[in-house]
Every structure is written in C-alpha cells, then in structure tokens.
Amino acid sequence: MTDFTKTKALFQIPEGMIYLNGNSLGPMPKSAPDRILDFMHNEWATDLIKGWNTKGWFMQTNTLGDRIGALVGAEEDSIVVGDTLSIKIFQAVAACLALRPDRKVILSDNGNFPTDLYMVEGLLKLKEAGYDLRTPNPDDVMEQITDEVACVMLTEVDYRTGRKHDMKAIIDKAHAHGALVVWDLAHSAGAIPVDLSGCDTDFAAGCTYKFLNGGPGAPAFIYVAPRLIADVEPALSGWYGHAAPFDFDLNYRPMPNKIDRMRIGTPSIASFAILEAAMDAWDGVDMQALRARSIELMTLFVGEVEARCPGLTLAGPRDMNARGSHVSFRFEHGYPCMQALIAKKVIGDFRAPDIMRFGITPLFLDEDDIRGAVDILSDILKNETWKEERFQTRSAVT
C-alpha cells in the first residue's frame, strides 16, 4: 500500500495553507531546489556542452518519457517529453489527419479545454477547405463517431466539472469506424489510473505541471502507439527528431520507427531537472491505491460541502468513479467566494462562468485538510465575507 503520509512530507506547502489546486499547478517537491542546484553546479557549470553526452541530457526526452509512461500504462519507448501541451496536441491531430487523408471530420466536444480547439482551428487554416471541427455535448460524442470521422480529439477529464470520458469505449467505437483518437491527459496523468496500451490508444498528450508537480511551464509529453509510429509523419519537423541530427542535412528525415520523431527542438534541460525531482515523488506510488484514496477524499469533500454550504451545487457526476480527481461546485458568486477562500489560505480556483474548482490530490491532502477547508468555506458563506469589495476585482489569472 502507498503511504500517503510519507508522500505528503515530500512537498513544500506553506504553513497554514490548504492547497486544493494541484489540478492546476502542483506544489513544489522539497527535493526540487537541491536538484536544480545540482544541475547548475555539477552538470552545467562543470561539464558545459559535454553534458549532452556525459550527463545524458540528449536522451532525457525519452528517459523521462518512460517514467511518465509507467504512470499511464504506456509501452517502453512510446513517450517523449518536451515542448508544450498545445504543440503536442497539434502534432497528434496533424498526424491523425495525415493517416486518414480521405476523411475531413475532427470530432471533439464543447467541454474540451479551449486551447485544444484553438490548435485544431489553426491547423485547419493550413489545410485545404472542407475540414469540419465538430463540438457536440460530451454525452453526445459516442453517437457522432461515424465513418466520416478522421480524428476524435478529447480531454479524458473535463477541466471544469471533472466528468470523465470512457476511454476504452470511445476508442473501440472509433476503431470500429476506422477513426483514430487523440487523448488530452492534462487532468488524468497522476490523477487517475490510465492504461494507454491496454485501451489500444492511438495518440495521447499531457502536461507535467498539474498532478505530476513538475513546476510552472513544465514540459509536455506525447504518446504514439508503437503500431503507428513508423507511419507517422511529423507535421512539425525539428532537428531533434531528425534521423541523424548531427549530419546537418538540409532536408528532413524523421527518426525511423521511433517515438524520437515526435521530438522537435532543443528542450529545456533545467526544466527536466525539476521534473526529475517531481517524478522521484511518484516512485512506489500505486495508481489504484491513489484512485481509491482520491475517491474517499472527494466523497468526504462533497458530503461536507453539501451538508454545510447552502447555495453551492455540485457540477459534474455524483458518481465519483465517473469523474477525475477534482470537484467543482457552481455558485453565482463563485469568483469573489474563491478570492475570500484564498485570503484564508484555502487555495482553489475559479472557472467561468460560475465554477469553484477544488483539486483532490492524495499525495499531499488528507481528511483534516478537507474538513478544514469546508470549515472556512462554510464560515465565508455564513458571514457573506465574499461580498467585501476587495474580493470583487478580477485578477489576470483566475
């Protein structure tokens, strides 16, 4: 069994703070400062450019990819790390369309994270006319998977409500109709058990700064099924994915039959150092145990809020097995209420138009945190503290 008391001790949480926002930005692992200083003093300072060979920098895209792969059920050598999630979504959807050239429909849903849709809109502007991006309600996606669909692009866990798509069922239906599927794992990796290989996943991408605790702007990752990689032509063809990057050919040749072809440009090795520290915190964590603990804490949180916080309405499924690892409540005055919570050191976030969002992250949260957060929320609602003028002004980041 995973000891969550021990994992909680691995993270730096400010004194007196209840941090319910690990679904947006994970807290800093206590080992991160030493790891970045070690990189600076014992790698960059001492080895300079030799570090690409002597310190293994050149292949960290892959070695870190395998560590993430162990958490999401990926085959060895099927994930690389680098760039941003938006770029990786662009790569994956472009690859799908190239593999299905006779089809013109990309199917998503209106609960998808908007940047994924923006990336597809931008991609389609680079292609000939006739492509169609469809965004039905999440519940209607299954019935809209037909023989005309080239690519189904979905975020497994809805960033607002926490609603979770049935990955296996959607993949099975898409494959039955000859379509490919791209999964955004931003709210899945490190939050719920994922089995990319067992679900026969085609493509997936995710970020490492949320549940994986890699720090602000930490690199993204991309997965391509080994059965597809030889046929995938990278739409973004950078030197790092070249078959022979140090031959300096003027024409691009992708790395043959390897996930390396999905690398683009030179990655941030300093960011990789912090991500390594974050991945160390996951050593020995059983994802099934994490899921069970997450459901326990979410159930407690929902029960306490509904019993003690009138005016808040649960968003997303009541069945905890049908959601990811965050809980959202709708409240007409959700923004100022969240600011009042933050002022009391209970950190969640707000998503327009009316959602107060709370990440339930068992690596560093326990029952006392949950009850303590609801104590403060209840007091804010009872005393209408959220009405104070200081909580009404919107910040740039909500």
TrEMBL record:
<protein>
    <recommendedName>
        <fullName>Kynureninase</fullName>
        <ecNumber>3.7.1.3</ecNumber>
    </recommendedName>
</protein>
<dbReference type="GO" id="GO:0030170">
    <property type="term" value="F:pyridoxal phosphate binding"/>
</dbReference>
<dbReference type="InterPro" id="IPR015421">
    <property type="entry name" value="PyrdxlP-dep_Trfase_major"/>
</dbReference>
<keyword id="KW-0662">Pyridine nucleotide biosynthesis</keyword>
<dbReference type="InterPro" id="IPR015424">
    <property type="entry name" value="PyrdxlP-dep_Trfase"/>
</dbReference>
<dbReference type="GO" id="GO:0005737">
    <property type="term" value="C:cytoplasm"/>
</dbReference>
<dbReference type="GO" id="GO:0030429">
    <property type="term" value="F:kynureninase activity"/>
</dbReference>
<comment type="function">
    <text>Catalyzes the cleavage of L-kynurenine (L-Kyn) and L-3-hydroxykynurenine (L-3OHKyn) into anthranilic acid (AA) and 3-hydroxyanthranilic acid (3-OHAA), respectively.</text>
</comment>
<dbReference type="InterPro" id="IPR015422">
    <property type="entry name" value="PyrdxlP-dep_Trfase_small"/>
</dbReference>
<dbReference type="InterPro" id="IPR010111">
    <property type="entry name" value="Kynureninase"/>
</dbReference>
<comment type="similarity">
    <text>Belongs to the kynureninase family.</text>
</comment>
<comment type="pathway">
    <text>Amino-acid degradation; L-kynurenine degradation; L-alanine and anthranilate from L-kynurenine: step 1/1.</text>
</comment>
<comment type="subunit">
    <text>Homodimer.</text>
</comment>
<dbReference type="GO" id="GO:0009435">
    <property type="term" value="P:NAD+ biosynthetic process"/>
</dbReference>
<comment type="pathway">
    <text>Cofactor biosynthesis; NAD(+) biosynthesis; quinolinate from L-kynurenine: step 2/3.</text>
</comment>
<keyword id="KW-0378">Hydrolase</keyword>
<dbReference type="GO" id="GO:0043420">
    <property type="term" value="P:anthranilate metabolic process"/>
</dbReference>
<dbReference type="Pfam" id="PF22580">
    <property type="entry name" value="KYNU_C"/>
</dbReference>
<dbReference type="GO" id="GO:0019441">
    <property type="term" value="P:L-tryptophan catabolic process to kynurenine"/>
</dbReference>
<keyword id="KW-0663">Pyridoxal phosphate</keyword>
